[in-house]
Amino acid sequence: MTDVVLPEWCRLVRADNPGPMTLDGTNTYVLRTADGTVVIDPGPWLEEHFDHVLALGSVSLALITHHHADHCGGIELFRELTGGAPVLARDPAASGADAELPAHGERLDDLGLTVLDTPGHTADSVSFVADDGESVLLFSGDTVLGRGTTIVSHPDGDLGDYLASLELLRTAVPGDALLMPGHGPLRPRAADVVDEYVAHRQQRIEQVRDALGGGARTARDVVEVVYADVDPVLWPAAERTVEATLAYLRAAG
Ligand SMILES: [Zn+2]
Considering its fold, how many domains does the chain have in total? Predict the structure, then answer.
């Protein structure tokens, strides 16, 4: 699936933190720009990983897609190793960042990078779009992964927000943008993956509705029916997404 040719200014460095939620590990992206080297999601506290990232150039800025530890848990060490490169996030306090990212739709200086607010997985989730005039790259964090599905991390995450964020990615990003997810393989057409995510989420909403109609009462009841074919190790995560779905259905009346 990784039949993706990256522009020479962008490199993927995958952290060695594989797991059920992180898939093959966290994807850290290293971008060479006119203003220096920019890192998207330095990743967890793994010094060897940071060594690999820093070997690609002296870092002038780090950007965080959301506050989960697999994306920014090592930020203090990373900052120290870079000699104090500034770190930006939508929620600086939760992410250990120095300052807040520019507003939704704004560009980051001369980087050719635009910030898109894409809440849902978490309240502070953002995506970045890079456009060099030839190719468009969508850095989607955990809003859209390279394979499988993501969670809506209730109560921080919100399903209504999440569906709106997928719709935004469908409409605001060219369909043939490369998908550069927070985990999993790169994908050649972001729009195809986003479409799959919308269809899957709608299907899950219907399944949750059916499970409630069938007598399920708690999120756990729903998980046991709807996620019966999913590895139980993922059930606690699924339960958070189901909680988000129940809140969404309640709000919809
Ligand atoms: Zn993650």
Answer: 1
CB neighbourhood size of 222 (10 A)? 26
- Residue 246 placed within a domain: no
- Collapsing DSSP to helix, strand or coil, 40 comes out as strand
Distance of CA 68 from the midpoint of ligand 1 (Å): 6
Task: Give residue 22 CA to ligand 1 midpoint distance, Å.
Answer: 6
CATH of the domain at 183: 3.60.15.10
β-pairing, 36-40 vs 27-33, is antiparallel
In a domain, 55, yes or no: yes
> Distance from the CA of 215 to the center of ligand 1, in angstroms?
33
Q: Max CA-CA distance within the chain? A: 59
pTM of the model: 0.96
Q: Half-sphere exposure of 55 toward its Cβ, with a 13 Å CA cutoff?
A: 9
Distance 156 CA to ligand 1 centre (A): 15
Q: pLDDT tens for residues 151-175?
A: 999 999 999 999 999 999 999 999 9
